[in-house]
Each structure stands twice: as C-alpha cells, then as structure tokens.
Design goal:
alpha/beta, 3-stranded antiparallel beta sheet, 421 residues
Amino acid sequence: MQFSNDYENTLDKGRKGLQVEMSHLGVSAHPGRHQLGELRTTISKGAKHIELGWFGSGKGSIGQGKFNPEVHSSEEREAMRQLAKINKVSLSTHASMNIGSLSGMTQEGFSKTAQENTKHEIDRALGFAADVAQGGPVVVHVGEFPRPIFEATKEFNSPDAYFEAIKEEKETAPILLVDKETGKIKTLAPRGTKIQVENGTDEHGFTRFRETTMAELLEKKKETIIDMDEGKAAVEVYKDINRNELNLAKGEIGRAIAEAEILKRRAETESNESIKQMLIQESEHYKKIASAKKIEILRAEKQLDNTETIYEYGTRQSAEAIADEAIKAFRLEKEKKLEEHLWIAVENFEPNSYGSHPKELRVLIEESRKKMTERLKVEQNMSESQAKNVAADHIKATFDIGHANFWRKYFKGKPEDFNKW
C-alpha cells in the first residue's frame, strides 16, 4: 500500500514549487466600495501593491452605492496617501469600469458628446491618482468600436484553428464604414451576400445581369489598385454601388427638366390665360423638383467622399482622446510636482471590440503617442526627441491576461493551439 504521492499541500514542510506570498502580489481593491476602507482592509492582508478603482460614473453617491472619485473627500484622499506611505504600499488607479469608449462610439455611431463624457471620467481619475497615488498609471479599458472576431485574428486563423464569434461570421458580418464628417455608421452588405451586377447587353440591347457575391466584388476591386487592402476596397465598392443609384437620380433630374421645358413651350403658345398660368405653374413645379434633386445629389456625393473605414475613423478618434488625456496627465504631474510620472495605461478588455487584441492595443499606443508628440512640439515647443520621450512616459499599456482568456470562448480548435496563440 502506497501513501505517498507527488501532490503538494500548502502545509507540507519543505514543499517544492512556486513560493508566492501576499507581499509578492498586487491586488485590486473592491471597486464597489469606498476606497479608504478597502485600502485599510487590503493592506491588513499583506498586499504591497494595490489598485484603487470604482464602478461608478457620472454623479457619485455613497448612500446609493455609486462610488467614484468625487465621493472621496480631500481629507480621505490624504488619509489614503499617508496610509500607503506608512505601510510602504505602492498604489495605482483604475478609471471607472463603466465608462464609454475613448473613440466616442455609441449605438447611433460616433459621438463627440459621448467621447467628452468618457474623457471627463478619466479626468476625475487623474485627479484622484495625483492626490492619492502621487502619480503612476491610470488604467482605462479600451473597447473602441465593434469589429468581427475573425478580422482581429485572420493572420492566425487556419482551417483547424480559428476564432469565430458566430458560425460563418466571415460571410455574415456586416462591413462597417463611417462618414468622417458626422461620425455616422454606414453599412456595406456582408461578404456572403449575393448581388446582381450588370453583365453587358443582350441582342435586343437590354442590360443583362449576373449573380456574384460581395466577397467577389471586394476581391476584384483589390485587383484594380496595387496594395489596396480589403478596408479600402470596401469603401470603393460602397461608393460604386451608391454612385449607380445617384446616376439613376440624375436621370430623374433630366426628366424633370425636360418636362418643365415642354410645359413652358406649351404655355408660350397657349391662348387661354387660365390654362397658360396652370402650365407655367406646373413647369415651375418640375424645375423645383429638379433643383431639390440636385441639392440632394450634391449632399449624397459629399457623403460618399467622406466615407472611410471604421478602423481609420475609430483609431484616429481614440488616439486623439488618449493623447489629450495623457497631456492633461503630464500637465497635472508638473503642476502638483508629483513623485513619479502620471500616465494613461490602456488595457485590453472585451474581444468583440477593437483594442482587445494585442496588435490593436499596439496600434492605439503608437498612434496616440504620435498625436501627443505632434501636440507637444507645437504647444510646449519641445524638440522631436524630447516630445517622443514624454509621450512614451505618459502613454503605455496594461495587458490583462484574464481578459485575454476571454478569447477562449471564440476559439475553434485544440486547447494547445489556443495556448500557442
């Protein structure tokens, strides 16, 4: 009979394996409670790094359990700072988990108002971090705009190992575009959609049609211009489809103008004054129809020219917002003479939104640093190298492994292939 095995119990003497104590780990205070009490409790457990944060956004209320930076008074903030200092605990700050995207994305499209609301919540977190943590990271979840799961992982995907939110996502997911002037979303039909396209004329001169798919139209468009990616191809296909509709509308203008001219000539030869006036009125009516159609077409053509991919518009909006908040952090750091840099740490979150994949997170970091560098050169009269260094110090990323594991839900393949990814 054998009583020994390789299993180790935490009470075993001389046990091997990874030795981890509470003092080796950073922990998060409960974001649904007042952070002073949470800090005391967490310190008593032996933690040496603590992240403070909250769920609440907008107007805070202790009575209603809506905790945010505003419910923590200046005295309480000072108490937290001293508590951390005495116990030699380092602190970091997490902005509200319930704020919107930095890009300003809403159900109706991109909104400057929504973006400003998000930035306002980050402003409050920056003020809290400056008072309590004396600098350090202010962590912000990024979930900037919707995009299909398969698009984020297409370089990895293979027939035996791939990511997919729903069955045949590649064929059924709509292609999202944006009006860069208004921020409104435009939709191109999914890649699997069957479409009738012109295919010459028959022996009687009538237009013939053939059936194709949106995917084929995109591929053909990509072949027309060197290095055109699918996003740019989608914009061009969208313009082609809508220009065909505009051409039909232009035909209506021509018919309205022709009808107005016919009525005008009839009026010129009409001897009955009442009929003549009626013909003139009808002629003017058709002219107004033509004029209104022209304005409508000009507006539609402008909207077509303003079309770009959701990736172009969304990442630009996000980068500008991150850069703006990082500059505020830099200014606050100087104003309060903080012990360490106060910086924005963007963090991956939900796989369904842009920014959750590591390569997307990298794009957001790089683009926002570029934006901040350019602004610092103009607004602070910094050199290129100095501005780049300041931007690098104030815009960074936090990569959450737990959030990265959310992707497992959408993986189709062997567990070892997911681990490899």
